[in-house]
Amino acid sequence: QVxxxxxxxxxxxxxxxxxxxxxxxxxxxxxxxxxxxRQEPGKEREGVSCINWSGTRTYYxxxxxxxxxxxxxxDKNIVYLQMNSLKPGDTAMYYCAxxxxxxxxxxxxYDYSYWGQGTEVTVSS
Length: 125
What we know:
The protein is mostly beta strands. Helix content is about 0%, strand content about 50%.
């Protein structure tokens, strides 16, 4: 079966960095676009970033542009989210998700099929 497992979350001070990892198994990884989403308690889930199947196209929501970088390693079935200059507003549970797509672009509006359990990020002021 498909497994999506996030790691790398933790507690960091404002201005610090974290790198989230998402390891995927049970599917042909390079048939899938990947996305990172986040959700604070009591709030709606928010799309953060996505990357197309080949890693050549990325998208970021405005609030993280210039601070976060998404990348993938199709040989290792891993997608990363490098988060720099973290702010307290970035505090959330971060989820990784996969959607089958061979499109040139990616979008956070896809109906992502497979989701991980999340990794918690807390940024202190």
